[in-house]
Amino acid sequence: MQIKQFRYSTDNFSYLLYGSQSAMAIDAGAVDSILSYVKDLNLHLQYLTNTHMHPDHVSGNREILERTDADFLDNQTLRKQKTILLDNETIQVFHTPGHTEDSMIFHTDGHIISGDTLFNGTVGNCFTGDLKAFFSSIKLIFDLPETTIVYAGHDYVRYAIQFARTIDPDNPELDRFLSKYDPYHVFSTLADELKVNPYVRFNDKKMIAVLKKRGLSVETEFQRWKSLMEVY
Ligand SMILES: [Fe+2]
């Protein structure tokens, strides 16, 4: 399975997953770029879907469905179906509520398309208010191998690292991460996230010390996640 990232608006990303013949577009706001890529590679755009239904992620849906014969895979169907078969390869679908109730991530071939659940260097806002559900979603992601590549819904890298520096100023990993940053191909691994992303470092000694110093509860993983999410 191949994965191509397309940038649109200020910092949004679309993704195209494809095999030798068929393709699936996710959050297809970059309509023209996606369609010309599909044409150049002589692919058939079989499916269109979304990581969640926020307006900036679904902005390309209508036009893609008008200009192609792609089938739209809706959230409810995918949550039941749990997998998508594309050119005989399997894409796993995980329901990951937290940022929104309908958030999903897609997993294939050592990559995740993580929408606004996990970004490179930060996590999404918890608009559902359900930090427990969000925590389970994050735990589910981090059960995947640390080599897993994270393809997120936005490029927030500079902002995220700048913010991480306010919590953990002398972390050398932050500079290392920024030196690898390329706005034309934005990704990280789960291993990178465990080094730089303050919100997923709830088991990191340094982060626990920071929370303790502020008098926050650090007894359980969930308490530490909650403290990180509520305070920062
Ligand atoms: Fe969103």
Account of the 3D structure:
With 232 residues, this protein is an alpha/beta fold. It has 10 helices and 11 strands. Bound molecules: fe (ii) ion. Residues 52, 54, 99, 116 line the site of fe (ii) ion (FE2).
Give the oligomer, counting copies of the same chain as homo and different chains as hetero. Answer: single chain
CATH class of the largest domain: Alpha Beta
The biggest beta sheet is recorded as: 6 strands, mixed
State Rg: 18 Å
Q: How many domains comprise the coordinates? A: 2
N-to-C series of helices and strands? EEEHEHHEHEEEEHEHHEHHH
Percentage of β-strand residues: 15-25%
Mean pLDDT: 97
Instruction: List the strand order in the largest sheet.
Output: 6-7-8-9-10-11
CATH topology of the largest domain: Metallo-beta-lactamase, Chain A
Based on secondary structure, the structural category is alpha/beta
Task: State the end-to-end distance.
Answer: 37 Å
Poorly predicted tracts of residues: none
According to CATH, the homologous superfamily of the largest domain is: Ribonuclease Z/Hydroxyacylglutathione hydrolase-like
Instruction: Please tell me what the overall shape is.
Output: globular
| Count of alpha/pi helices | 10
